[in-house]
Write a structure and sequence with these properties.
- This protein is of the alpha/beta class.
- It has a single domain, classed as Rossmann fold.
- The chain contains 4 helices and 5 strands; from the N terminus they run βαββαβαβα.
- β3 (46-50), α2 (61-71) and β4 form a beta-alpha-beta unit.
- α1 crosses α4 (119-133).
């Protein structure tokens, strides 16, 4: 079984709920991004990073700082992306995923939810958590 890090930032609690569903399925605990750093990447086999859309469909700046520091350390380890949004179309996820892949991150999936994660999003998160833990 893989050791999975589920790292998130949440403003309204929606992305935190997503992180908890994914972490439970992966057999781990979700951790806030402020408690994670790039020097911890070697301790894990797989990752899920979650952040809601902020402002003009972008990542939170504090989250992005930790994410950017981790990108070069992932190597070929699988990384899932997730988050919630309230307005817009979810474009921030497409932008984030493309930038991650361009940087060489092994993105194995992405999951978004409009506001609270619905049953479909929760099912996808649980499936992703199980997949990352394999």
């Amino acid at each position: 079984m893989s050791k999975v890090a589920v790292v998130y930032w949440s403003q309204s609690g929606n992305t935190e709920a997503m992180a908890n569903a994914l972490a439970e399925a992966a057999g781990t605990q979700a951790v806030e991004v402020s408690s994670f750093s790039a020097d911890m990447v070697d301790d894990y086999d797989a990752f899920a990073f979650g952040c809601p859309a902020m402002g003009a469909e972008e990542l939170d700046s504090d989250f992005e700082e930790v994410w950017d520091a981790c990108v070069g350390a992932f190597g070929d380890k699988p990384v899932a992306l997730f988050g919630s949004y309230d307005w817009g179309t979810g474009e921030w996820m497409e932008t984030w995923k493309a930038a991650a892949e361009d940087a060489g991150v092994n993105v194995v999936g992405d999951i978004i939810a409009n506001l609270d994660p619905d049953d479909e999003a929760l099912e996808a998160l649980r499936a992703m958590g199980a997949k990352l833990a394999e």
